[in-house]
Amino acid sequence: MLKRLPRVATALLLPWLTLGVSQSLKVLLNDPSNNWVSTTTISFPRSQAFFDATLRWDKYAQPTFSAAISPGVEVDVIKSVKLATSHNIPFLATGGRHGYTTTLATLTNGLAIDLKTVTSQCPGQVGSTLGAGVGRDEGRYGLAIDALLSVRLVTADARLIEVSATSHPDLFWAIRGAGANFGIITYATYRLHRITKSNRKVTNVDMIFPANMSSLYFDTIIASYNGSLPPLLAAETIISYDVTSNAPQLLANWVYYGPESEARKVLAPILGLNPPVVNISVIPWNQLLDTVFFGSDSSNCVGNRTASLYGVNMRVMTASTYQHVVEKMGQFYADNVNGRGSILTLEMFPNKATLAIPDSSTAYPWRETVAAVLIIMIDPDESALQLGLELRNDLAATSGFPGLAVYVSYSHGDETLEQRYGSAKLPKLVALKKKWDPKNMFGFSNPLPTSYP
């Protein structure tokens, strides 16, 4: 069993109407009758411990807290939930605090339940899983939820239960795609895949394309791969500002799960474009995240930034749409000096193994996705926020879905329920929400209602 605590958002929406919120919380949390273990830490604003327990990856539309508890053991997670719910204190449990959605800002002066003491990843493994867990391995192994075997979960009424295909299977279905709505996961068990000599090495290819090659780059992707990558190939492309040319550029990372000789054959159409900057390396599989994008990807974990995010799922890919996006970003960079840190990421992950899992087996509604777009507007002013919405609308118009479809972990927070959770999944999800969380305690992270429509 893997011991991990998630980035799962939880909340108690009943208002806490006592006077002196901070002082009252201090008295409640410091009451000796709580019998916290010695490794559990209680902290309050203006202390380093509190800062460390509440620092988020993104501070745009963030929640606010009057106290934080960092449980050292599972039983103190249960105690924290019981204390908060019995006193009508709104709370939010987090792991890596890498999650983003503007709905989190509806939590004010609450209790932070900091679970990062047992998860150091960015973002947290379990928190990522509960949205679906997209990534480069989708072509081989499917989504992270497809590898999830069981969890231990603290419910809205502060019970600890085992959730799996054979224990509370309805809840197991729901947490795989909408997990932030149903509880706090303290343990998770995954199906693992054996690393052998033949799949121990990965070929990583990083490239930079200037703006005048962007149209050819996108045309080549569509023509060569039919808008869907083979199982062993994955790619991410970032549209960013290039200081040298004072124009957009494409940072392209392509990963092939195999030897360099095979990678060069599969990537021949892209390498044949002769990008001015190319770096090819063969590395152990567990060094991939430290290598991609010329070794710069780890900087994405640096917290305390201010960014407004917008996500879009794509079922089909249209080169002209992406070129239009490059041109709009270029104009934005030219007009907004302070917005030049903004980027757009196009994640093209193969979905062969993802599609092999029946759609009805989990709450996740977007298995047909061939690419996901994440628009990140840094230090946004009104023009940046407007561009984010425009780009999202432009991409959704040619996505191949009937309307906007969004991976819930990439949700901005203004989408409809159908756009996040899919209209076909909502009736069952809402019924389970009413069953397991009728008072909407876990209701700050893209919350489900207890009735629908």
Description:
- The strands form three sheets. The protein has a seven-stranded antiparallel sheet. Strands 1-2-4-3 form a four-stranded mixed sheet, sandwiched between helices.
- With 453 residues, it is an alpha+beta fold.
- It has helices spanning 21-29, 48-54, 74-86, 125-131, 138-141, 169-178, 214-225, 260-266, 268-271, 292-295, 319-335, 352-355, 382-397, 417-421, 426-436, and strands at 41-43, 65-70, 91-94, 110-114, 148-154, 160-164, 184-190, 201-210, 233-242, 247-256, 277-284, 307-314, 343-348, 371-378.
- The chain has 15 helices and 14 strands.
- Helices cover 29% and strands 21% of the residues.
- Mean pLDDT is 91; it is low at 1-19.
Look at the structure and give the mean pLDDT.
Answer: 91
Helix content: 25-40%
Number of helices: 15
**Rounded radius of gyration (Å):** 22 Å
Shape: globular
